[in-house]
Design a protein that fits this description.
heterodimer; A: 133 residues; GMP Synthetase, Chain A, domain 3; B: 151 residues; mainly alpha; 8 helices; 77% helix; Spore_V_AC (chain B); membrane (chain B)
Chain lengths: 133, 151
């Protein structure tokens, strides 16, 4: 019984070992330098395993997914990254969020090509993130 | 036979309580209920306009509703017999407590029976939940105004 149970958990521990970060950044209306720099600052956060950054004009939406084992640090990582990007680019309206909804929606937005539609969608998402009830 | 002898005899006769097995059952059934809740949360997040933060209320309502229907059909009782605390501790146990008390009072009429019995068990949960939430909020308010914590 014990042996069987420990065998059952092996795949879970092995999944935890994969240490890759998937970071995707859109390239609508943003220069190369900014993109690389923001990708770099996301990559520097070790707790993040998946992130999406979407630029539209002066809006930036960064949705991050924090490693489940470090879930209690989620808010801290969010705040740290928000502060870091705001300090680097004071002219950008940034929102860093660890919410799964924003991650899911921005994954869909990555394939969007219409800039107007994207801007509307970003605005909607930012409003949704403020919702508390 | 004196009382002491009787007690000894009783202890010999009663089968030992399978604590380990009960704990294991409660753990897995409770875990399965929570997994279903998590799946419902993701359902709300992906298909509706809920964020992870706001989907909590809707998920709790749905889980309680499902438990209420299962109680009415008599299925939750079987689950409770099998897993004990595993089915009572999650929020579904609250729905079960409300509906089973209401069913119990049905014979006494609709108002004085169902109406007054419905929260006989769950009333204390609500009362102490609200009271303890108030005190936790009070402590946090004090800590924030002193400057130990942030909101």
């Amino acid at each position: 019984m014990k042996k069987l149970a420990s065998l059952l958990f092996v795949p879970f521990f092995l999944i935890g070992c994969s240490n890759e970060q998937t970071i995707q950044v859109t390239d609508l209306a943003a220069d190369e330098e900014k993109r690389v720099e923001i990708e770099e600052s996301i990559r520097n956060q070790e707790e993040i395993y998946s992130a999406t950054a979407i630029f539209v004009k002066d809006e930036l939406l960064v949705s991050i997914q924090v490693n489940p084992w470090l879930g209690f640090k989620e808010q801290k990582v969010e705040k740290r990254l928000q502060k870091e990007i705001e300090e680097k680019y004071p002219d950008l309206k940034v929102l860093v969020s660890s919410d799964y909804k924003l991650h899911w929606e921005s994954q869909k937005l990555l394939e969007e090509e219409n800039e107007k539609k994207m801007a509307d969608e970003i605005k909607k998402l930012k409003d949704l993130a403020k919702e508390e009830t | 036979m004196d009382p002491q002898e009787y007690q000894q005899l009783e202890q010999q006769m009663t089968p030992p309580t399978p604590y380990f097995k009960n704990v294991l059952k409660a753990f897995f059934v409770g875990g399965i209920i929570c997994t279903i809740g998590q799946a419902i949360t993701y359902l709300y997040v992906i298909f509706f306009n809920f964020t992870e933060q706001t989907a909590g209320n809707a998920t709790v309502a749905t889980m309680v509703f499902i438990a209420m229907i299962l109680t009415g059909l008599g299925l939750y009782r079987k689950l409770g017999q099998f897993s004990g605390a595993g089915s009572a501790v999650p929020v579904t146990g609250f729905g079960n407590a409300v509906i089973s008390a209401a069913i119990e009072g049905r014979t006494e009429g609709f108002v004085l029976g169902v109406g007054s019995n419905m929260f006989k068990l769950a009333g204390s949960v609500i009362l102490f939940g609200v009271a303890s939430a108030f005190f936790v909020a009070l402590i946090k308010l004090i800590l924030v105004s002193v400057g130990v914590l942030e909101w």
